[in-house]
Write a structure and sequence with these properties.
About 2% of the residues have low confidence. The protein folds into 3 domains: 207 residues, Rossmann fold, CATH 3.40.50; 125 residues, no CATH class; 86 residues, no CATH class. The chain contains 17 helices and 16 strands. The protein is elongated, with a radius of gyration of 30 Å. The strands form 4 sheets. The chain has a 6-stranded antiparallel β-sheet with strand order 2-1-4-7-8-9, with helices on one face. It has a 6-stranded mixed β-sheet with strand order 10-11-12-3-13-14, sandwiched between helices. A two-stranded antiparallel ribbon has the order 5-6. It has 519 residues and is α/β, with parallel strands linked by helices. Helix 10 packs parallel to helix 11 and helix 14 runs parallel beside helix 17.
Length: 519
């Protein structure tokens, strides 16, 4: 499975429902405190249920929603690339489609709701039968399903497996299923067992936070070995071996407990009858905790969380390079999502490029998604346009856009950096000027603007004085750095010229016929 989209509502800075689309590699850019990390942490809460990096609490409720007495936070994830077959009852295969657990678009949509930052309630939004005769089958016990079979004289050869019984009932009502998109509460009754099975098919989500947290008791997710444990333990072969060990221990413990209680029965039957052995099931065991001491240490066993930020990020860089190599060699098909805050932290430009290349390679492997936040224009320029998401504060809330929200009529990474970081560059100035010229708007743009004196150097060595608008003055200095006869334009003037061109393009594009540039 892969994340197709995320919906968040009433979570930190996100008051109204905000929909975020994902690709194999998705990079969130935007100003500080605009909500980039909140997206990654919402996903951590969704996938890891408070056992990952982040725990949800009442302070995560949007303050404006709370003032309106809306205390419910909603985090929903829509999944695509679903497994063809799943097992949710015994060992009999079925599918999400046959169980009517897909939404109207044919995707798996899981909704988690948190009242005032409390425990989650889980729903699956699905185009599902609502006919009273065959609705709510996922919530019913086997005895209830059998009664429907009996009351309606439905033929079903195997009534011991719920998925087979449900299929027979739905087939009987196939002409009148009354399909409607509803939210199925999978924390209720027998649907809880189904949800527990479906949850095992979800990808592993690993969040690598930026270097904000430095306390000794920090859950040091910067150490990649801790994340590797989670992924290794998802292996089907290892899961089967661990379950076999757990079942054998369970059986021996049960034998010890039985013998103890039998002996106690001989001495004091009333006490013996009040006691029962409590032995956790194999599924509830936390094998990951067995390996919680794993780490990478350096000289004199200094742990990674005691090292400098640059060293920690170098280790992280090479963890991803190693993951690329391992996944290619092993053909690893387990779904995994790596979420990385500000991978450029404490790295110079060369290492930033190496890191983003490793991340791009990892994201190109099967069943892997990578999500990053970044403030680095160096990293942004190494990405494809479709990878980028710009988070912007708008009048009625936050919005997450692709790069096409700018004034150019083609994707521009220079424009992305301008929108996300306010990054004022000569390259972006050139792009805007060239676009105005290409559209035939140059004379109209220059008309009526104030001018200044510009000394042009001619090829014969002479100098000619000309009057130039600010935009022309800057463009000539960009293209003729050898000319030192003029006062250099300032950063503020560069910004002003860019703003003037953007405003002009915005105004004129509403009425003018736009010529699409050649690719």
């Amino acid at each position: 499975m892969k994340i197709k989209s995320l919906k968040i509502k009433n979570f930190r800075g996100y008051k109204g429902e905000t929909i975020v689309g994902f690709d194999n590699l998705t990079a969130f850019v935007g100003k500080n405190d605009v909500g980039k990390s909140s997206i990654l942490e919402a996903l951590d809460i969704f996938f890891n249920e408070g056992k990952g990096v982040v725990k949800i609490d009442k302070t995560d409720v949007n303050i404006f929603a709370a003032r309106e007495d809306d205390q419910e936070t909603i985090i929903s994830v829509v999944f695509s690339e679903l497994p063809d077959e799943i097992i949710i009852d015994s060992s009999v295969e079925t599918s999400l489609a046959r169980e009517y657990m897909l939404n109207a678009d044919g995707d798996l949509e899981i909704i988690k709701k948190y009242k005032n930052g409390g425990a989650q309630k889980v729903y699956i939004k699905a185009l599902h039968p609502t006919n009273p005769g065959c609705g709510d089958l996922l919530l019913k016990k086997n005895s209830d399903l059998k009664k429907i079979i009996q009351d309606n004289n439905i033929t079903c050869d195997n009534q011991t497996v719920n998925s087979i019984v449900r299929s027979a009932i739905w087939e009987h009502f196939s002409d009148d299923l009354s399909l409607d998109e509803i939210e199925i509460d999978v924390t209720k009754e027998d649907a809880k067992k189904i949800w527990d099975k479906i949850a095992t098919y979800l990808p592993v989500y690993s969040l690598f936070q930026s270097d904000r947290k430095n306390s000794d008791d920090d859950n040091e997710v910067q150490d990649p070995l801790k994340e590797a444990v989670k992924q290794i333990l998802k292996d089907d072969r290892l899961q089967a071996s661990l379950e076999e060990i757990a079942n054998e221990v369970h059986q021996k413990l049960q034998d010890v407990a039985t013998r103890t209680l039998n002996k106690l029965q001989e001495m004091d039957p009333s006490v013996a009858s009040s006691l029962n052995p409590v032995i956790p099931s194999a599924q509830s065991l936390k094998w990951q905790d067995v390996f919680k001491g794993v780490s990478i240490s350096g000289d004199e066993d200094i742990p990674i969380n005691k090292r400098g930020s640059g060293v920690k990020r170098l280790i992280l860089l090479n963890f991803f390079r190693g993951e690329v190599e391992r996944r290619f060699e092993e053909g690893d098909n387990k779904g995994v999502i790596y979420a990385i805050e500000e991978p450029e932290t404490s790295q110079h430009g060369d290492n930033q490029i190496k890191l983003i290349e490793a991340i791009k390679s990892l994201a190109s492997t099967d069943n892997v998604q990578v999500i990053i936040t970044t403030h680095s224009s160096v990293m942004v320029k190494q990405l494809e346009y479709l990878n980028l998401r710009v988070i912007i504060d708008e009048e009625f809330g936050k919005a997450v856009h692709g790069v096409e929200e700018g004034q150019l009529r083609y994707p521009s990474l220079n424009e992305v950096n301008y929108l996300a970081f306010g990054d004022v560059t000569e390259e972006y100035h050139d792009e805007l000027y060239a676009y105005i010229e290409y559209q035939g708007w140059r004379n109209e743009y220059m008309q009526g603007k104030p001018t200044r004196l510009y000394h042009r150097q001619l090829y014969n060595g002479s100098v000619r004085d000309e009057q130039k608008t600010l935009t022309e003055y800057i463009r000539h200095q960009i293209h003729h750095p050898e000319n030192h006869l003029n006062t250099r334009y300032t950063k503020a003037e560069l910004r002003q010229s860019i703003m003037d061109m953007r405003s002009f393009i915005s105004d004129i594009s509403q009425n003018a016929e736009v010529i699409e540039p050649d690719n």
